[in-house]
Automatic annotation (TrEMBL):
It holds the Pfam family Rhodanese. The lineage of its organism: Bacteria, Bacillati, Mycoplasmatota, Mollicutes, Entomoplasmatales. InterPro entries: Rhodanese-like_dom, Rhodanese-like_dom_sf. Keywords: Transferase. This is Sulfurtransferase. Residues 15-99 form the Rhodanese domain. GO terms for molecular function: transferase activity.
Length: 99
């Protein structure tokens, strides 16, 4: 794990602290995989990266980025961190990790 990956247990703790869950999978991918987190916002990759400042103008926004296994969400979280968002995390293992 790197310094912005969080475990399943931390995922739920962060949500209790007001973090938003951003699902970066393609529209409808939740139906294909059967995986989802109710209450998440679907903003597909790579648009979520290209429009970071428009979507989240407050760089202190609390975000957890998710996808199926953690690849797209990891790239998204890493890019957001590089853009100066300190409160962006990725769920280790993706949504499959919540099973």
């Amino acid at each position: 794990m790197n310094n912005y990956e969080i475990s399943k247990n931390d995922f739920y703790k962060f949500i209790e602290q007001g973090y938003k869950v951003i699902d970066v999978r393609s529209v409808g991918e939740d139906k294909m995989t059967g995986l989802s987190y109710q209450g998440s916002y679907n903003i597909p990759y790579p648009g979520v990266v290209r429009k970071a400042e428009q979507l989240f103008p407050d760089k202190n926004e609390k975000l957890i980025i998710v996808c199926n296994y953690g690849s797209r969400s990891g790239l998204t979280a890493k890019t957001y961190r590089q853009k100066g968002y300190p409160n962006v995390f990725v769920l280790y293992g993706g949504l499959y990790g919540l099973k």
